[in-house]
Amino acid sequence: MIDLMGIINLNEAEEHLGELSRSRSLASIPFAGRYRLIDFVLSNMVNSEISNVGIFIQHKYRSLVDHLRSGKDWDLARKRDGLFVLPPAYTRTPMQVHRGDVENLYSNLDYIYQSRQKYVIIAGANIVSNMDYRGILEYHKNTQADITVLYTKANCGTHDCVRSNILGLGPEGRVLTISEFKDTGGYQNMSIDMFIMKKDLLIELVNQCIARGDYDFVKHCIIKNVKRLKVYGYHHPGYVARISSLQSYFQHSMELLNPHIWKELFFKSGLIYTKVKDEAPAKYIHETEVTNSLIASGCYVEGKVENSILFRGVKVHKGAYIKNSVIMQKGNIGPGVILENVICDKDVHITSNKQLKGEYSYPLVIKKGRVI
Amino acid sequence: MHKKACVAMLLAGGQGSRLGILTQKLAKPAVPFGGKYRIIDFPLSNCNNSGIDTVGVLTQYKPLALNSYIGIGSAWDLDRMNGGVFVLPPYVKEQGGEWYKGTADAICQNSNFIDRFNPETVLILSGDHIYKMDYSLMLEFHQKQQADATIAVIEVPLDEASRFGIMNTDKEQRIIDFEEKPAEPKSNLASMGIYIFSWPVLKKYLFEDELNQNSTHDFGHDIIPKMLADKRNLRAYSFRGYWKDVGTVESYWQANMDLLGERPELNLYDSKWRIYSSNPPRPPHYTSTTAKITNSIIAEGCLILGEVENSILFPDVYVGPGAKVKNSIIMSGAHIEDYVLTDKAIVGRKTVLKQGTVVAAKKLDGQQKIVVLDIDMIIPPHTMIEASLSCSPPEDALCKREE
Fold this sequence. Notes:
The structure holds 2 protein chains of 2 kinds.
Chain A: E1 4-9, E2 30-31, E3 35-36, H1 38-47, E4 52-56, H2 62-68, E5 82-86, H3 101-107, H4 109-114, E6 119-123, E7 127-129, H5 133-143, E8 147-155, E9 165-169, E10 175-180, E11 187-198, H6 199-212, H7 217-222, E12 231-235, E13 240-242, H8 246-255, H9 259-267, E14 282-287, E15 289-291, E16 293-295, E17 300-301, E18 304-306, E19 309-310, E20 315-316, E21 321-323, E22 326-327, E23 332-333, E24 338-340, E25 342-344, E26 349-350, E27 355-357, E28 364-366
Parallel strand pairs in A: 1-4, 1-6, 4-5, 8-12, 14-17, 15-18, 16-19, 17-20, 18-21, 19-22, 20-23, 21-24, 22-25, 23-26, 24-27, 25-28
Antiparallel strand pairs in A: 2-3, 6-11, 7-13, 8-11, 9-10
Chain B: E1 6-11, E2 32-33, E3 37-38, H1 41-49, E4 54-58, H2 64-70, E5 84-88, H3 103-109, H4 111-117, E6 121-126, E7 129-131, H5 135-144, E8 149-155, E9 165-169, E10 175-180, E11 189-198, H6 199-211, H7 219-229, E12 234-238, E13 243-245, H8 249-257, E14 285-287, E15 292-298, E16 303-304, E17 307-309, E18 312-313, E19 318-319, E20 324-326, E21 329-330, E22 335-336, E23 341-343, E24 345-347, E25 352-353, E26 358-359, E27 363-364, E28 367-368, E29 371-373, E30 378-379, E31 384-385
Parallel strand pairs in B: 1-4, 1-6, 4-5, 8-12, 14-16, 15-17, 15-18, 16-19, 17-20, 18-21, 19-22, 20-23, 21-24, 22-25, 23-26, 24-29, 25-30, 26-31
Antiparallel strand pairs in B: 2-3, 6-11, 7-13, 8-11, 9-10, 9-11, 27-28
């Protein structure tokens, strides 16, 4: 058993995902045909033999709690350890407005304190990747670092790096600076905001932050301590998608249509788990034209689908044409409908012969449950 | 233990020898079906959907795949504190043990299991059929008729009736006469192999039958005729809907093909009556720019670069560019390489068809036989396969080597 516990700290800014995050946290935004964003980090943890995972939630968590339930679908419904969903407990912070994630960590410090693992990995839910943390823990031990920060070489010419933290690296991967991304293109060492450290250090950092009146974990607990502590960077060479805006959501969704990325993301070092729905396999009627697309179970396809992702239980009726689009769960696309560069949230019904078109750089989002 | 109104007993020990290669390495109820399921998913899901939460599964023949599949029953929501699913293999007793000698004997040997729940009725099911049925309605009928036994029947075409156990009933659905595979059937009401018995009555008959040296210990052959002879209250419960015996390769293939098309008789997409199954964690399947899919069912994790027509693909199947899969059933993890052609084939789990191979029987008088390929085979490039093939490890060259 690995001596590592997982903390998924849901503190990402979600306002840039527009309509998709209106009634849900970023962690529970549907992605890749059948998953929610949190499934990737959660599955990676489970596949790395982590058996104690705490999810620190902030707000809009109804859909997330519904998704996670007991944690059984990730094999985390355990007698000992398992999945812990930890909402903010305002009673432990002084009488004031809730400002940031450190307060949440602080108010649930008992959970961290009582966990029996020596090391902890802290991650968000906005990174879509397939990685094994076991090797990274070994790296962390070998470098005798206080903190190991995971990073990727990101093409900052695209929107990937917006609002991210960029690492300034010294010899042998030592992190000298962590600074907010400034508008410069090219490939940069982008932090994916996953940190490995000793549990005791995490408790110390949180207590210190609270004592100073600080509230942002990365900004105040990590970045402020880069000079004082021994911080190392670990380069993850594989595929990493950072979902930080509607544009990046759409762009990374479309990247999944590359079978190499599809294979790496879903099979490389472990499978990605999610809540099961017991849908029947997808069904194609008559002669269909479904090319360069991802089709989930429970779909019923009669029309034409091109460069698109259909989530579980989507119906595409005769004569419909879906191009460069993402149709979430239970979408019903009527006969003769034409969609291009559209993201339909869950349970959207587009009635016959409607034509909707967004731009590739600015996809049109149809609100959950809408009938058009 | 809480008292249960009804305990279901699922007979899953049969070999299903007429399925040939399909049941060479696993029990018939564990045979994959419909792109995702196994045959046993149908009765188990029916139990769940009918509100029956205590099910004994009687296993005997090659039970490994079946036992590990059933597990603690969580796939069908049958992992319960009171009741749930129980796998019941034959066991050794004080006077030595013995195999299940017949369907009735299997139940008799497990009467102590049923007694634990002290039920009023016992529902006997088999793992041989594809159908959706609300057993609670049948139970209601049984109680209303105050029957000793109720047998589910379905109308079959009269010219096929001699293949089934045929019931002759009066106007009140009382069974007057039962004939196993009659040459000249008097009715077209075929037994579906689904029985509800009042447990105290059945128990008495089972123990009597146990002592009968001449008995084959079979419900259809022995128990039902004996009850009829004793003028017990036996009723026929008419079922309307899709029901298919998948006892032969032909009927198995046909039942799979029945799922295709716009409005199949058996709707797997009905959220009110879901067929539960294990859900392997696989991503949505990918269809490339060269893929062409016509009238097919395709499961998750598949990678389709070629052509698929009137076929059923289980999870993780790869269909290479230029390959054509037609009228076929491809089990999970099979690898169909470039320019392979399959027509009316059943390809076993994880079998690899190297490039250019053709799997199709010759057409004779417009009839084409079904070709079945075993699991874990590796077929060399450009092989012509016209008849079913199985492989017996380890020396067989057509078997995949252990890695």
